Amino acid sequence: MIDIYDSEFRKADLNLLVVFAALMREGSVTRAAAALHLSQGAVSAALGRLRRLFDDELFTRTRTGVEPTRRAVELARSIEPALGLIQGAVTGRDHFDAATARHVFTLGMSDDLEAALLPRLLAATTDLPGIRIAVRQANRNTVADMLDHGEIDLGIAAAPAHGPDHRTREMFASGYSCLFNPRLLPLATPLSLDDYLAHPHLLVSYDGRRGIVDDLLEVRGLTRQVIASTTHFAGAALQLTTLPALITLPTHAATVYADALDLTAVEPPLPMPQYTVSAIWHTTVTDDPAHTWLRHLVSEAERLTSPARRNE
User: What DSSP assignment string belongs to 284-309?
Assistant: First the structure.
């Protein structure tokens, strides 16, 4: 039980924590003031008191608003859930009402997962005017750190690296497919290894030099002709509208690009690994009603994302 008679606790104005939460969420004194129906001067004054209370700058000015310090990010992990519990106790509501809430949910994922999941997330939130979905580029090696720094609410990646402060849930299994434009590259299907190696490839990788396909071919003493590389699957797929080339990419994205750009997606002519895509979040938000709603929303979007499930 907390000591409500503690002198340090009694002299703290709990309304300041509401201002703190608004600044974290809005990233701007002006937007926080509008959200709280306060003047900018009142929010600036509250920020000054918050800085004295926590003996930290908390937010630094940027060209677009304010940026939280590391101390602010650490505080937010405790303050946000606590405010949610207090709100539930005061209002009698211990749930998140997406129909009336104003909330920005930030997801971290790579663009192949964004292609598969974001359209379904946007469709599910069309009739929720106060809900906004934001996506930041992330991968399995960065999502945990982004969660720890408060940059994202939920990460989605293949086998994300994580620690004891994180929780994960497996979402769906995926693999790899080959994508090409049948009007520019009229290849027979199933695709043969000879055809695969005889035509140019666009490489998608973080270093722009090598991908998983090159490793698998090297084991067989083979190589492919890579004519260009990019770090984005969507950018590579767009090139196929005018370029007679092949791309090997995750199946969940290949099917989306094939449908959108009238391309052909087929199985690669060499065995490639399967993998599992998982959601990852910080343990401190596990019981937060808003975050619980977000995870449910992602689960519904995931339901039709897996190639196996789409064919049911």
Answer: GGTT-HHHHHHHHHHHHHHTTTSHHH
Handedness of CA 128, 129, 132, 133 (dihedral sign): positive
One-character DSSP codes across 227-266: EEEES-HHHHHHHTTT---EEEEEHHHHHHHHHHHT-EEE
- Three-class secondary structure of residue 48 per DSSP: helix
Q: What is the pLDDT of residue 87?
A: 66
For residue 79, give its domain range.
7-91
Total number of residues shown for the chain: 312
Measure CA 49 to chain center: 33
Residues 87 and 108 in one domain: no
Residue 98 lies in a domain: no
Check: CB of residue 248 under 8 Å from CB of residue 197.
Answer: no
Q: Are 46 and 19 in contact (CB under 8 A)?
A: yes
What is the three-class DSSP state of 100? Answer: coil
CATH of the domain at 221: 3.40.190.10
Instruction: Confirm whether pTM is higher than 0.90.
Output: no
Mean pLDDT, 10 residues at a time, the chain of 312 residues: 53 82 88 90 92 92 89 83 68 74 92 95 94 94 87 92 90 95 96 97 85 94 95 94 96 96 96 95 86 93 62 44
In a domain, 303, yes or no: yes
The answer to whether position 167 is within a domain reads no
